[in-house]
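Customer ticket, subject: "Can you confirm the structure for Peptidase A1 domain-containing protein?"

Message body: Hello, I'm evaluating your service for our small team and ran a test protein. I'd like someone to confirm that this is what the system normally returns, since I don't have a reference to compare against.
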Amino acid sequence: MAPFISSPLSLLTFLLLLLLLFLSSAASHHLKLPLLHLNPYPPTPSDALSADNHRLSFLFSASRKHPRPRLPVTSAASFGSGQYLVSLHLGTPPQPLLLIADTGSDLTWVSCSACRRHCSPNSAPFRPRRSATFCPHHCYNPACNLVPHPKNSPHCNRTRLHSTCRYQYSYADGSVTTGFFSTETTSFNATAGKILKFQHFNFGCGFWNSGPSLSGPSFNGGDGVLGLGRGPISFTSQLGRDFGHKFSYCLMDYTLSPPPTSYLLIGAGKSKLSYAPLLVNPLAPTFYYIKIESVSIDDVKLRITPSIWAIDEYGNGGTVVDSGTTLTFLPEPAYRTILAVFERLVKLPESANPVPGFDLCLNVSSGVPRASLPQLSFKLGGGAVFKPPPRNYFLDAAEDVKCLGLQPVTTDSGFAVIGNLMQQGYTFEFDKDRSRLGFTRRGCSAPP
Ligand SMILES: *[C@@H]1O[C@H](CO)[C@@H](O)[C@H](O)[C@H]1NC(C)=O
Ligand SMILES: *[C@@H]1O[C@H](CO)[C@@H](O)[C@H](O)[C@H]1NC(C)=O
Ligand SMILES: *[C@@H]1O[C@H](CO)[C@@H](O)[C@H](O)[C@H]1NC(C)=O
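Agent reply: Thanks for trying us out. I re-ran your input and got the following:
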């Protein structure tokens, strides 16, 4: 990695990490995740989406070689956020938006403004009144059953003629978005230089958005959230049926300046991947779970009781792959073991000024010699090994200081999370039909 001091991003990244600390020390240990156990979905949700012609229509004339939507992805580090942003166009004519890529939630929503003609620069980024194709769902529409509704307010008032479908979607840290569940036309640049349009894309037009991860600095640069989860209303579930229920992305190194662009690709991507089976947790149908079989450092398997990685009968535990969480969270006993081994093996002095929130910080003022940072690897269910480079978990936390970017999960109901920084430099392919996660380092390296 290029020396960090010389990079103009260093201060921003420093702020970013302070921000991460602030967020990770908040009541919830995740930056943002949807509330579990709400079970907002009826038993056969995809039927409701296809009922009364709300199934997406694929406007591009079908050809044998389908072009596939290819959406630009960049790190939001230059906005001081630890998120990755996807560029999406919504409405007719198309309005450009930047949405947080989140495999840990299902609802796609955008911050909406009611302005028509006189929109101030500070008004919310999406203006439904300037779109000819915006259409809020009626509350009697079966699609309205797919979203949670505001508490204390009956979502359908039978005495009103025009009652729009109100949604209220909450994240684990208490952040909430409320608005109208609606449909719109969304357009993409696709492979082979084509433009694709999808009609009747279901999304939330969010008029009331609050909470630390929706209004604080972690939301900087974002106009909403792109829900990439496993549930029926997610962006990828809605679009995916025309593309084999597959999508892939590559998250580039967030410290690079200017931030490089990679892509979220809907449909089949690369071949020659390593695969791990995706597990299903009926109590949390949004998440992509993988099984961690064992953890090694410098190819030595650590003594960690395998049962701490399991999903229990109440749906707690397990390991989730989440693009919307920045750091990686591991069960406390595994975290303690990994930390102790790193402390023993690392060949760099510890920093004299530890960074609050991190247990292991190193003084890298004399550089980082090759092989001075131990190499972490995860053996996954199915036998594939995920061996991310040390820069994915030794993060620049202050000038000349790198800290181990892992956090312990301390609550019984918690679960492990492979966060977005740990995923950098890999292409991940989520294949819902074959229930497997593919990954490879090929095709996701930083530009030279
Ligand atoms: C339903 O709407 C009517 C007319 O707007 C209003 O008077 C009534 O209070 C509403 N009922 C509920 C339960 O909100
Ligand atoms: C397609 O790409 C062009 C050139 O990069 C860009 O100007 C345009 O906004 C993109 N359109 C969509 C719908 O993404
Ligand atoms: C790092 O090491 C250098 C040289 O030994 C020292 O001057 C500096 O104060 C140290 N910085 C921290 C944060 O430990």
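A couple of notes from the result: The helical segments are 10-24, 45-50, 212-215, 235-240, 332-345. The pocket of 2-acetamido-2-deoxy-beta-D-glucopyranose (ligand 1) is lined by residues 154, 157, 159-160 (CB under 6 Å). Feel free to reply with more questions.
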